[in-house]
């Protein structure tokens, strides 16, 4: 399939780039969103029902073009948040609504942060059935109150939220859950900076750069060295003393990025999402059980063998229960990471390029050459369960 022409034709979704880091660097550049992966429900990139988009394509929004600043993707639909305060849906769920500051898409519900009704009212959290197109009444709603918005403004936070975490609440001590109770409180001692939800687990990054995890651990996604569940947030001791800047939760795996640009990854490796030798590339069905450090009889690390080039068994890793340091090609430093159900995408700082696991279940980092060929610098990445959305700007001097 030939690569699409670079923007502006066809007209992709354009937004203003984030302000450059460093003193005196306030220039903003326009950028575009791109998408690739599964779009069988007609969701953005929306290249046709039942198609796999194998190469990045300019992202198209329902209706006319708009400045999109955030993309949140669920299995069957995608929510696009515009700078003008609209949420636009594409895929199995369609529709649009105004007055929205942020959105978080899941199959069970679409959660939006909206301006409250009436003058002087604070923001309101609303959850909608995705098929409702945000018409009628929400499934539930919670007024956050004007004092919460004032708290966020006093800390210099942007007006938008960061769902599922609720930074507008004092101290960011609550988050949205897809299951009852829908708004869950965090322990008072947890000063949350970011929170990510996987299929069965949660990762929290606190203000000190420490990582906490909780939920189901049967795929090693909690990183504590066992396959046991943790009902409450537990400090990830393997990363203690390492200041962390980013966390990302996949379906059953986890990623964090240190302040120095190192990437650590752990959990389920069924499709090579950990960039470790994976089961999907094995050629036979022989099973080896090898006990891993810290695992009990029910928590053996399962490895299968395929014949290597020399004919010897080539083990693979099904579960990595501890954070493992990942070496990217060319020693690139990572600045951002995102996870889908069974794939991982990272943005490196040196070239603003993208590493990913493609649909062939590669178990090694693979650069998306499209952005290199088009002289585009990747600034952000957001993974849905089975697709990936990328925000990129033209490289300076290109």
Give me the number of helical elements.
2
Judged by helices, strands and strand pairing, the structural class is mainly beta
Q: What is the global morphology?
A: globular
Strand tally: 30
Average pLDDT taken over every residue? 79
Question: Unreliable segments (pLDDT under 50, ≥5 consecutive)?
Answer: 1-27, 150-161, 283-306
Q: How many strands, which pairing sense, and closed or not: the largest β-sheet?
A: 5 strands, antiparallel
Q: How much β-strand is present in the residues?
A: 35-45%
Helix content: under 10%
- CA distance, first residue to last residue: 25 Å
Gyration radius from CA atoms, angstroms: 21 Å
Q: Can you describe this structure?
A:
- This protein has 398 residues and is mainly β.
- The chain has a domain at 62-185.
- It is built from 2 helices and 30 strands.
- Strands 1, 2, 3, 29 and 30 form a 5-stranded antiparallel beta sheet that branches. Strands 4-5-6-7 form a 4-stranded antiparallel beta sheet, with no helix packed on it.
- Strand 29 (376-383) and strand 30 (387-394) form a beta hairpin.
Notable features of this structure?
398 residues; mainly beta; 5-stranded antiparallel β-sheet; 4-stranded antiparallel β-sheet; 4% helix; RCC1 domain containing 1; RCC1/BLIP-II
